[in-house]
Design goal:
This protein is of the alpha+beta class. The chain contains nine helices and eleven strands. The strands form four sheets. The protein has a four-stranded antiparallel sheet, with no helix packed on it. The chain has a three-stranded mixed sheet with strand order 4-1-7. A two-stranded antiparallel sheet has the order 8-9. It comes from Sorangium atrum.
Length: 330
């Protein structure tokens, strides 16, 4: 933003050989410059502005004391509270001091782009000069992915996704240990660590083709399908049992209607017709009830075998005298 300024025209004050009075004066100037930048910037909470200034000053003091590793997190937090070009420039300098060359290079270039937009060619030149000095020291990591066509394949570096466009391309990274992860549906997850050397070195890590995960395949494939069939089959069985029971009650009620026309087992024509109708209903009720019970049993078998079986399961329900016959293979 146009109101941001680099303290002392971007001349870093962090040296231990200068008098303490001069250092204090410079820190004060830096704080005043950042405060002015914040005041002229976008609206933000007052406490965030004050916090950003306080952290900026403390980070500068730590750098002067030779404790850059402790200073960088404070610059980062100051930048989070308020995005200032001034803070970003000194954060880049801090990264360079602790050997995070890729981060420093990226921040210097970001500063150059922002001050270019504001038309400040002096500051832009300074930021680009620093970026150019850091660039030869930036290490790179190339992640080569075998079987890149694996459906749903996802690769991450230190928890951040690495898109297919980056695969096989030496990407700028800070020196040190990086964790590479790869995963895909139905495959075993893969994790590896790679040590990237400092000084502009390029390291390569190959992500081999992922192995199949039988447990995942069974749980997420045929197993899920069989469980669905099991639920549907058992549900249909419950309905069948209910319908069979209802038909049975209806048959008994129909049989009771024949009593006025019968004396024991002897019935007139009307009584015989009523009892014949009741018997037919009872037979239907028996078959439906039996098929329902068989469906419930079949659903239970499907559910129990869904997880462990790796073969297909087929069941058939055949009506039989007094119920139903369950036929199948596992």
């Amino acid at each position: 933003m146009s109101s941001d300024t680099f303290a002392d025209t971007m001349t870093l004050p962090h040296t231990k050989s200068r008098p303490k009075r001069g250092r204090a004066a410079r820190l004060c100037a830096i704080g005043i410059g950042l405060a002015a930048a914040i005041a002229g910037g976008r609206a933000a909470r007052a406490e965030d502005k004050a916090g950003a200034v306080a952290l900026f000053r403390e980070a500068g003091a730590l750098v002067d004391a030779g404790q850059a590793s402790r200073a960088c997190p404070k610059y980062e937090e100051s930048l989070r509270l308020y995005d200032s070009v001034n803070t970003r420039y000194f954060l880049a300098d801090c990264y360079e001091r602790i050997g995070k060359m890729a981060s420093a290079w990226a921040q210097f270039l970001e500063v150059a782009a922002r001050v270019h937009a504001s038309g400040d060619r002096v500051k832009e030149a300074k930021a680009r000069e620093r970026a150019a000095a850091v660039q030869p020291k930036v290490s790179r990591l190339s992640v080569v992915v075998e079987a890149a066509s694996t459906p749903g394949l996802e690769v991450k570096r230190d928890g951040t996704p690495v898109g297919p466009g980056q695969w096989g391309v030496p990407m700028p990274v800070d020196a040190g240990t990086h964790v590479i992860q790869a995963s895909a549906p139905g495959k075993r997850a893969w994790t590896a660590q790679v040590e990237v050397k400092p000084g502009g070195e390029t390291s390569t890590l190959v992500v081999r083709a992922l192995e199949d995960d039988p447990a995942s395949r069974d749980a997420g494939g045929a197993g899920d399908g069989r469980r669905t069939i099991a639920l549907v089959t058992a549900g249909a069985g419950v309905v069948g049992v209910g319908v069979g029971a209802a038909l049975g009650f209806a048959a008994k009620s129909r049989f009771d209607e024949s009593r006025p026309f019968c004396n024991g087992d002897r019935c007139d024509r009307r009584g015989m017709d009523i009892r014949g109708s009741a018997v037919a209903r009872a037979n239907v009720a028996t078959v439906v009830f039996g098929v329902g019970l068989a469906a419930i049993a079949g659903g239970g078998v499907l559910w129990l075998t869904a997880k462990s079986s790796t073969q297909g399961v087929s069941l058939g329900l055949s009506p039989a005298v007094g119920g139903a016959l369950v036929q199948g293979s596992f």
